[in-house]
Write a structure and sequence with these properties.
Elements: H1 8-25, E1 33-34, E2 38-43, E3 50-56, H2 61-65, E4 71-75, E5 78-79, H3 85-92, E6 94-95, E7 99-105, E8 114-119, H4 131-148, E9 152-159, E10 164-169, E11 173-183, E12 193-201, E13 209-210, E14 214-216, E15 222-232, E16 237-244, E17 250-259
Antiparallel strand pairs: 1-6, 2-3, 4-5, 4-7, 7-8, 9-17, 10-16, 11-15, 11-17, 12-13, 12-14, 12-16
Helix pairs in contact: 1-3
């Protein structure tokens, strides 16, 4: 295509725009543009946005080095805070065979940061995986990683709905509870959703532990997590009850209950 304009500055601007589109396409147009094999979703809780990994392509550079649920804090020393997923993907993707430095952490606040240098490879950029399927797969992978660290999984539960109630065999000692939700990233209403969870044994409901309140009201959707622990002095049955104030915003939920030796 020929560009005819009396101003050379405009030519440069148009070419720069085309180049940016090629990078963001990630290989859809330019075959030498590759990636690392990680699908991202925005975590919008806590007043700011940070990208979180929710799916890894098996056999990819990301699969070997990163883990699902990692937060990406920086790409080549560029902070990812409050950037869109499209902006971050554009930073990660580049020419096949070149390297990109990714700084990850366990939390969006930056706990336990780790730096990885990954080589970009050509990726099959077909239709994206179903977000709910990828979400549940990432949660299951996290549970398996915890088991390898010595955790005893007492209960795992996944659901497409918001509110739920279930019992689990807790035994004596401390158990840990993590509830992860996937919000509707297409809903731009800004209403968001909130959830609370109470944990107690059937004999001492008055001593219930209330998990930290989960709050996702930005309207951008994404993954949000609340977690806590409860100590049971005797062998007993634990109970978890979650009520969603706006179930229409919560598209998927995963609950994990475990103990550590």
């Amino acid at each position: 295509m020929m560009l005819i304009t009396p101003k050379t500055g405009r030519i440069k601007k148009v070419l720069l725009t085309v180049a940016l589109m090629l990078v963001m396409a990630g290989g859809a147009v330019a075959q030498n543009i590759g990636g690392i094999g990680a699908q991202l979703i925005p975590d919008t809780t806590g007043g700011f946005t940070m990208p979180r990994i929710f799916s890894l392509v098996k056999g990819s550079p990301a699969w070997d080095s990163l883990k699902a649920t990692d937060y990406i804090m920086k790409v080549n020393d560029v902070s990812c805070k409050d950037k869109s997923i499209e902006e971050i993907v554009a930073l990660i993707r580049g020419e096949v065979g070149t390297t990109v430095r990714i700084t990850t952490a366990d939390t969006k606040q930056g706990a336990r940061p780790r730096e990885h240098e990954l080589t970009r490879v050509g990726m099959n950029l077909g239709p994206a995986a179903d977000p709910k399927d990828a979400f549940f797969a990432a949660c299951e992978k996290e549970a398996q990683q915890m088991k390898r660290k010595g955790a005893t999984i007492l209960k795992s539960y996944n659901s497409d709905c918001g509110s739920f109630f279930f019992n689990f065999n807790a035994g004596a000692g401390k158990c840990y509870i993590k509830i992860t939700t996937l919000a509707d990233a297409t809903d731009k209403s800004g209403k968001g959703y909130t959830a609370t969870a109470r944990v107690f044994d059937n004999e001492h409901e008055n001593e219930a532990v209330t998990l930290s309140k989960l709050d996702s009201k930005s309207g951008a959707g994404g993954i949000a997590t609340m977690e806590g622990s409860a100590t049971y002095p005797h062998d007993c049955v634990g109970t978890i009850s979650v009520h969603m104030e706006d179930e229409s915003r919560c598209k998927a939920m995963y609950v994990l209950v475990w103990t550590m030796p």
